[in-house]
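Standup notes
- DV: blocked on the single-chain target, sequence here:
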Amino acid sequence: MSESPPVAPAAPASRGPKPAVRVALAAVAIAGVAFWAWDRRFEDTDDAQIDGSIGFVSPRVPGTLAAVRVAENQVVQAGEALAELDRSDYEIAVGQARAALAQAEAAVQTESPGVDIVGSANEASLRSAEADLDAARAARSGAELEVQQIGAQRKEAEARSQLAELDRARSQTLANQGAVSTAELDTRRLGAQATLASVEALGRAVQAAESRAKQAGARLASAEARLRELKANGPRHLDASKASVTGRGAGLDLARAQLAQAERNLGYTHLVAPFAGVIAKKSAALGDQVAPGQQVFAVAQTTDLHVTAAFRETQVRDLRVGQRARLHVDALDLDLAGSVESLGGATGSRLSVLPPENASGNFVKVVQRLPVRIRIDAGQPGVERLRIGMSVEAKVTVR
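- DV (later): unblocked, structure below
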């Protein structure tokens, strides 16, 4: 009886995942890769908030609050009156400044013609002095010529007197000899006496002419001195008059500046909102005394707001200006659109009041955050409800 061939053992059943499981795992893997690829397109942070300007309104002049026109949380517009200081003292100061300005203007009007008057008087005095000098020179020349003429006449008279004396002497000799009559001798004697008297008279005339010449010389010296004095002092008088007018003009400019300052101080009694916003804080009440620099109101901006988002330094590699962003405001459950406007110039830690200082030499690396400014697109519903400081979740599309 033949033996039957041995039967081969059955193949063991496969222990791998079932086809459905493999499909599910593949789907999960594909979804994970797709999610990773999709998520790489964004950088997000929840360390963000609505940001804007907060204006602290302070008086520029001291005074008493005479009126407070707003309350906390009140919406105000740019330039809207917030409070009024007592104006009485500043109105008085304006009146005083206007009076001082009027006095300064009157002083300038009084002094201004003086320059022309002094200049004209100097020119007239100079011309008069030059004319006097010319007259004095002519008088001295005339007096000197008169002295010369009378001197010549005296010399001629002396010559005639000498001749008449010789004739008298000869006549006397001849009369002693009986050759000349007594009448002729008397004639010769009287002629000699007359010529001698003429000589004496001309001598006195010469002395008088010399005296007049000296007087003319003195007048000439006086005229020359006066002309020199006018030439030397006239310009100084004119300069002094001009300086006086310049001083009056400076006083006028000062009075105008003081009036402008007084009017500005009067205008400073109005405290106005620097921009449109909400009164976030009111620190003074009616009747309070306030001083320059004292914060009376805080106005929080409500328009042209933006988002300041602090991204980790490992997130900013692909951030660029102009990239689109999605913003979620927690307080309002509001989604807004925006775009990256700028990246900060320093990390938040370096801009803090007390920046970290590694003085001990030990260093622990901490991931820093860089502020990124995101502009909120205008015209979106709900932006008017935004307030500074609201928390925001920001997501920026970087790819």
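- Follow-up: The domain at 90-267 is CATH 1.10.287 (Helix Hairpins).
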